[in-house]
Amino acid sequence: MSGDNAERRETNGKSCEGKLHARFDEGSLETHNKMGARVSLSNIVWIRRIWIGLLLLVTIISGYGGHCKSPTFHAGGGLTSGSSGTPPNAPSNLTATIIENVFVDLKWTDHSNNEFGFEIEREVTLIGPPNPPAPTYTQLHTVGQDITSYIDEDTQRSTITPPCTYRYTYRVRAYNSHGYSAYSNEASAETMTTY
Asked: Could you identify which of 9, 29, 137, 191 might form a hypothetical disulfide with 121, taking C-beta atoms 3.0 to 4.6 angstroms apart as the criterion?
């Protein structure tokens, strides 16, 4: 009787072990069973999570490495953020020449190879009447890289009596993502007076 019970227990054990292997032989666990190793489902899930996490970490690091953005420059608005680098050299030899008795032709020399463009500033002085308003520089226009001339058409002749003259004084500076250059020399031109 005891022999029968032992045999029955052995048979039941084999039967249970067979069912366990049958479950392991299904789906993704089949390769593990063929290698002769018993791997629990929870271990496989954790291994997969670790590998996915490592792959995501490597992807993020490789995606950001070496791709830091430079600060953006907005003409007339300065820099959006600071960074190391060199502002352009200052332009020079600025000249202002009257065209058709009213427009002003500006020319200058470019001394840099890293500018994004040039910012032109103008100061207007009314000469003749007593106590004229104090002149101040304001931004007139910006031009692109390697451009070394500009015609100011926003000028006017004096029609004031007694006759007066408008004096237009200019200065130019270069800019890039690292800042502004120093200003060029100043250059002035006067519009002819009408009566």
From this structure: 137
Measured between alpha carbons, how far is residue 167 from residues 62, 79, 164, 194 in Å? 58, 32, 10, 14
Contact 79, 169 (CB under 8 A): no
The class that CATH gives domain 78-190 is mainly beta
> What SS3 class is residue 68?
coil
Query: Are the CB atoms for 115 and 145 separated by under 8 Å?
Result: yes
In this prediction, residue 50 carries a pLDDT of 84
Count of beta carbons in the 10 Å neighbourhood of residue 43: 11
Residue pLDDT, tens place only, 153-189: 988 765 555 567 888 999 999 999 999 999 999 999 9
pTM: 0.55
The boundaries of every CATH 2.60.40.10 domain in the chain are 78-190
CA 92, CA 145: separation in Å to the nearest integer? 15
